[in-house]
Design goal:
alpha+beta; 5-stranded antiparallel beta sheet; 20 helices; disordered N terminus
Length: 569
């Protein structure tokens, strides 16, 4: 039998077929990433400075020998902001480790490539498990991974960008528990945990669709079996154990502490006309690809199964949620306001509509293409998607050519980070600016009551004996020290945020403190020169949660090995 012909026989040579498709996915990943990386620059737009500062903190702490990062001692203007406690960051470690061997710009693009290929791989095997069709899985992976909205997220919105990586696996897990093989409950547990480690808000958004699917299951099947309920509860319970390090800080340090979070509000919605017309333009952004827009317009003509009608309905509903025609005003004062930007639902619209596009297009192609022509077809699809993605990214590349480099500013500047270009030689300039979005997330609400209070933190201003002092911090991992000279015994209000597990020492001795009206550390000093050190010591419960989580992952791995062996028999 011809090798190339045999390569497309799923039953006789599935491994070689998988390797072929993964190789093509890697080709598109590398081509698009190298196209961006060849600019040797980054456009610092949107949430870029927020996440870049978090990565920088992790990197510098690793460099000094500290694996854990709790507070921003080196970045965020040395305010000690605890975004690391309440915003997951485990998937930033690869980026931070890459900083040890690559330049700042190249380290980012290498991480970008890793996340992109991980998305492509997870998408391919998730669709393969769902459809049992290799070509459909390949098409799904291409279109989903290189969708315009996901390309937009990859420029700066990294929490959501990471979460999108695991959505195909998450909804495969939901499908298996509700309709498929309920013994594969672990898929839902694992994928739910991975989404939680990427982006907490995406967990909330995914739960919305999970509830909808659960209701659809109750209606279409006239109930649900006890075994499936058990599998659902088991997956949820195991997922909680897997993500304990993410959950615990909210109980130990957030609840009841008067801390702020991202402001809940629906700040932007799109019009259907904007979504429709914008989806036919050749650039990344808040839109669907033209392939998915055509799917919306034509899928009804070839959908035959109830399962695909459900997927079609979910895709349309997700699109509807992005628009102003959904009554978002009715959600005022409810948890649904956490969505903030309704464009977030485009990730789910892309997921559901791409399933239909992949199933429909692969069926048509397989009817008309056989033998070795399938190899040529697969390569052609990869080249087409690569060119389509390069076209989407070309505007970004053009912007990098025309935008100015980010200039230097003072170390305690209150000026928001401008949308400027970063290169290796000016990469560190961004950390002296006020972070544009998220600079004051997870700080005490009392510190946000006035611009003056906010700026005083950014400018390292302390208050002592009725005077304002501008101090220079001495930094270590999770630790900020100040030299303060007092003419008499008095309280000093330092420009460092006080949390429940904040620690303070004066001249090397543990010292009591209180929270001031800025939400900052206030400590009593004796007359003379004092060295005040503010740090953070996580509760024993946090470290216990890490141990439990690691043991849970190991136990689940052992279970999967045994399950696979038993399943193979």
């Amino acid at each position: 039998m011809d090798v190339k012909n045999n390569l497309h026989n799923n039953k006789s040579n599935p491994r070689k077929l998988n390797l072929l498709y993964l190789g093509l996915l890697l080709f598109v990943t590398l081509l698009t990433t190298l196209y961006l990386a060849s600019s040797k620059a980054i456009f610092a737009v949107s949430d870029w400075t927020f996440h870049a500062a978090r990565v920088e903190e992790i990197y510098l702490n690793l460099k000094s020998g500290s694996f854990f990062t709790f507070i921003a001692a080196r970045t965020f203007h040395n305010t000690g902001a605890a975004s690391f406690l309440f915003y997951p960051y485990i998937f930033f470690y690869p980026w931070a480790f890459l900083r040890f061997i690559l330049s700042p710009v190249n380290a980012f693009y290498a991480w970008y490539a890793l996340v992109t290929f991980a998305t492509a791989t997870i998408s391919y095997f998730s669709m393969k498990a769902y459809s049992k069709k290799s070509l459909a899985s390949f098409i799904f992976s291409l279109v989903y991974t290189f969708a315009p909205y996901r390309l937009y997220l990859g420029g700066a919105v990294f929490g959501e960008y990471l979460a999108v990586t695991f959505l195909p696996l998450l909804f495969l897990g939901i499908y298996e528990v509700l309709w498929g093989d309920k013994k594969k409950w672990y898929l839902l547990a694992i994928s739910g945990a991975l989404v939680a480690y990427a982006h907490i808000l995406s967990v909330f958004l995914s739960l919305e669709f999970a509830v909808i699917l659960f209701i659809i299951k109750l209606i279409t099947s006239r109930g649900i079996s006890k075994d499936r309920i058990k599998s659902l509860l088991l997956s949820a319970g195991v997922c909680v154990f897997l993500v304990l390090p993410v959950i615990v800080p909210f109980f130990t340090d957030f609840i009841g502490q008067g801390l702020s979070s991202a402001k809940p509000s629906i700040s932007y919605t799109m019009g259907p006309r904007y979504l429709l017309l914008n989806s036919f333009s050749a650039q990344k952004g808040w839109k669907l690809s033209f392939m998915l827009m055509l799917t919306i317009l034509t899928a009804w003509a070839f959908i035959k199964s109830r399962r695909n009608w459900i997927i079609y309905g979910l895709g349309l509903f997700a699109c509807f949620l992005t628009t102003r025609y959904f009554p978002w005003k009715l959600t005022a004062g409810t948890p649904f306001e956490m969505v903030q930007l309704t464009a977030r639902y485009l990730s789910y619209a892309s997921l559901f509509l791409t399933i239909l596009f992949a199933l429909g297009s692969s069926s048509v192609l397989e009817e008309h293409v056989t033998g070795r022509k399938k190899l040529a077809l697969s390569c052609s699809l990869a080249v087409f998607m690569a060119l389509f993605s390069l076209s989407s990214l070309s505007v970004y590349r053009d912007t990098l050519k025309n935008v100015q480099d980010m200039p230097k500013t003072s170390a305690n500047s209150t000026q928001p980070a401008p949308f400027k270009r970063l290169r290796d030689y000016n990469y560190y300039n961004q950390f002296n600016y006020k972070i544009l979005f998220g600079a004051f997330d997870y700080m005490p609400k009392s510190s946000l009551t006035s611009v003056q209070k906010q700026n005083s933190l950014l400018m390292h201003q302390a208050y002592l004996n009725g005077k304002t002092l501008t101090l220079s911090p001495l930094i270590k991992a999770n630790q900020i020290s100040y030299q303060v000279k007092s003419e008499k015994a008095a309280d000093v209000d330092l420009p460092v945020i006080a949390y429940k597990h904040t620690t303070v020492s004066v001249n090397g001795q543990k010292h009591a403190f209180r929270r001031g009206n800025r939400g900052t550390v206030v400590v009593g000093l004796k007359r003379g020169q004092n060295t005040v050190t503010v740090g953070y010591k996580a509760s024993p419960v946090f470290y216990l949660s890490i141990v439990i989580s690691i043991l849970s992952w190991l136990a689940l791995l052992i279970y999967l090995v045994k399950f696979k062996a038993k399943y193979a028999q």
